[in-house]
Design a protein that fits this description.
mainly alpha, 1 helix, 99% helix, coiled coil
Length: 141
């Protein structure tokens, strides 16, 4: 009887091992499916996040490019306005300088004319004195 019990025990053990192996395979299969499903879900999420990141990055780049373009154009306008103002200021300074030079020329010419007139008067006075003195000396002689 013991051999019958041993055979029954061996069959029972074998059936239990088969059932256990079946359950292990079933659990592995279920967990493998869940794992694959989670991996696929996370990869899809990563793909979506990468796409959103790339879209946001490109929109920010475009926005920054637009801002840079605006700043450059604004600086260009400011620079051209400053150049115009500088050229006007330079023109005004040149006019003021030429006016001052003209005034100085007039003043100097007037001064020279006064000096020439004064010099001529002094020479005429000296000539008249010389002529008087000469007539005096000629009359005395």
């Amino acid at each position: 009887m013991s051999s019958i019990n041993q055979v029954k025990t061996a069959r029972f053990k074998e059936q239990e091992e088969k059932r256990f192996n079946f359950e292990v395979r079933k659990l592995r299969s279920e967990h493998g499916k869940k794992y694959s499903k989670e991996v696929k879900k996370n990869e899809t999420t990563m793909t979506r996040l990468r796409g959103e990141y790339d879209n946001k990055l490109s929109s920010l780049e475009l926005e920054l490019e637009q801002k840079l373009t605006n700043v450059r154009s604004k600086q260009g306008r400011s620079l051209s306005l400053e150049n115009e103002r500088l050229s006007e200021e330079l023109e005004n300074l040149k006019k003021a300088h030429s006016d001052q030079v003209g005034e100085l020329k007039e003043t100097q010419e007037s001064e020279i004319e006064k000096l020439v007139t004064s010099h001529k008067q002094t020479i005429d006075n000296a000539r008249q004195k010389y002529i008087k003195e000469k007539m005096k000396w000629d009359a005395d002689a």
